[in-house]
Amino acid sequence: MQSKCEDLGGSLASIRSREENDAVKDLLNQIKWRKDDWGKLASGVWLAGSDSGSEGRWYWGSDRDTSTWTFSDWRLPHEPNNGGWGNDAENHVVMTPTDWRWNDVRSNEEHFPLCEIPNVNPITG
Ligand SMILES: [Ca+2]
Ligand SMILES: [Ca+2]
């Protein structure tokens, strides 16, 4: 999931505030999803969040710094539920349609990655 973003010169998206979360939701709502995208989309788009270091201690990206986890929008009260089992526990974050609240899921699921790409000028590239 991360490598697709790296191919674009970015990384999986981190969301650190309510404002950022709302902006991302607006963006996702503007996308005209194709019908055959729905299988992949149905249970979410990947964010960079993970608690694979220590259960319940969430962080963004690869630095495992839990102090940067300053906001969350879990689909309460049932998520995050760390479903799955053993090495297959749910340690990664997706935003789930249609209100784009968050769920923790297993890493081997297939979803679209939500990438953030720094300082791309849309005119000059
Ligand atoms: Ca977990
Ligand atoms: Ca879950």
Strand/helix succession: HEHHEEEEEE
Backbone shape: globular
The CATH architecture classification is Roll
Share of β-strand residues: 15-25%
What is the rounded Rg?
A: 14 Å
Bound molecules: calcium ion
Q: Tell me, what is the CATH class?
A: Alpha Beta
Percent of residues in helices? 10-25%
Give a count of the beta strands, DSSP E runs of length 2 or more: 7
Number of helices: 3
Biggest sheet architecture: 5 strands, mixed
Helix and strand content put the structural class at: alpha+beta
Name of the CATH superfamily: Mannose-Binding Protein A, subunit A
Description of the structure:
With 125 residues, the protein is of the alpha+beta class. It has a single domain, classed as Roll (Mannose-Binding Protein A, Chain A), CATH 3.10.100. Helix content is 18%, strand content 19%. Strands 2, 3, 4, 5 and 6 form a five-stranded mixed beta sheet that branches. A two-stranded antiparallel ribbon has the order 1-7. A hairpin with an 8-residue loop joins strand 2 and strand 3. It is globular and about 45 Å long. The mean pLDDT is 88. The chain binds calcium ion (2 copies). One calcium ion binds at residues 51, 55, 82, 89-91, 104.
Comma- or semicolon-separated keywords:
single chain, alpha+beta, Mannose-Binding Protein A, Chain A, five-stranded mixed beta sheet, two-stranded antiparallel sheet, 19% strand, binds calcium ion
